[in-house]
Amino acid sequence: MKKKMSLADYNAMPVRKAVTHNAVPAMFTMLMVLVYNLADTLFIGLTHDAYQVAAISLATPLFMMYSACSNIFGMGGTSVIARAMGQQKGDYAKKVCSFCMWTATAVGIIFAILFFVFAKPILTVLGASRDTLSLANSYLTIVAFAGPLAMISGTFSKILTAEGQPKKAMMGSMIGNILNIILDPIMILGFHWNIAGAAIATLISNMVAAGYYLLYFVRGNSSLSIKVRDYTLKGKVCSGVLAIGIPAGLGSMVMGVSVMFINNLMAGYGDMALAGSGVATKITMITGMLCIGVGQGVQPLLGFSIGEKNQKRFKETFRFSLIFAFIVGLIMTGICYLFLEQIVGVFLTDVNAYQYAFGFGKILLTTSSLFGIFYVLQNSIQAMGMGFAALIVNISRQGLIYIPLLYVFNHILGVNGLIWAQPVADVLALLLAAVFVFISYRKLFCKVDMVSAEACI
Q: Would you list the domain boundaries of the chain?
C-alpha cells in the first residue's frame, strides 16, 4: 500500500521539489475555479446578449462572498493546522478541522437565506438597470442555495493541503468545476434556460464537490476530523482560526466588494462598459488565479517550518517560491497580452462592449506579472501567524488602497481611470506587503536571544 504523504514528508524533500509538488496541485485547483468562473460568462456570451453578460457581472461578486467566507475557515484552518502538525499536535488539528467544517456550513446557510430574500434590493443598490435586474435576480436566487455547499468545498480544497494532501484537495474542486463546464452549455444553450441555466449548473457542481470532500472524511481517509464531538471553540481553536482566517476572508470579501463598487461606477457609463469591464477583469483572473494557487500551495510548507522553528528551511522555501511565482505571473501575463483580441472575442460580439473590454484588458495587464510575488508575500504573513499584518495586507490591494483610488481616478480620467486604479493599487499593495513580511520575519526569527544578527539576513 502506498504510504500516505504528510507535511513532514514534504519538509524532508529538496525545497524545489516540495514547492512544486504542493504548489502545482493548488494552481490547478485555482485554474479549475477560474475555468468555472469563465464558463458562465463564456456560454452566456454565446447567447449574443450583452445584457445577460452585464447581469452575470453584477451577480457574480455576490456569489464570490461564499468563496470569501470559505477562505476564513480554509486559509485560517490551514495556517493553524500546518503549525500544529509541525508541533506534533494531531488531536488539536482535528478539533480545528471540525470547527472549520461546522462553522463554515452555518455561515453558508445564513448567507443563502439573506441572498434569497433580499436579492432584488441588493442588486438595485449595486447598479442593476431595468434591463439587467430581472436577469441578475434569477441567477442570484438560484445560486443562493449553493451557499453551504460552496462553503464546504471552498474550505476543504485548502485544508487538505495542511495534512499533505494537495492532490486530494485539488480533486474535489476539479470534479465540481469540470461538471459545471459540462452542464453550462447543456442548460444555457441546449435547454435555453440562459442565465438561470448557468445558476442551476453552479448549484449542481457545488453539490458534487462538497459531496467528494465529505465522503473523503466519512471513509476515514483523513488524519483530521469533521466529527461533531471534536467541535469546540476552546483552546484557542476559534480565535486561532479567525485571527488568520478573517484577514484572508476579508481579502476575498473586499475583492468582491470592490467589484461591486466598480460595477456601480461603471454602470454610469452604460451597460456595454459594464460588460466590457467584467470581461477584462476575468482576463486578468487567468494570471491572478494561478498565482493565488502558488501562494496557497506554499503556505502550509512555510507554516510547518514555523511550527518546527526551522528558519533555514523557511528562508529557502520563501525565496524559491518568490522566483517560481514571478515566472508563472510573467508567462501568463505574456500569453494573455498576445492573445487578448481572441480572448475578448470569445466572450463578446457587441462592438462597443468589445472595444471597452479590449482597452480595459490592456490596462489591467500592465501589472498582472506581479501577482505571484504579491500572493507569496501575502501567504507568508499568514503562515507566520501574524494576524494584524495579514489583515492589513489582505484588505489593502482591493480595499484600503483600491476603492479610494477608484473615485479619485474616475474624477480625473473618467471611465479609463476606473481601470487604471487597479494597476496603481497593485504596485502600492506589493510594496506594503513586502514591508510587513520584513517586519513579521524579524519579529518571529530575529530576537536577540534566539539568533545572531547575521541569521536574520
A: 15-451
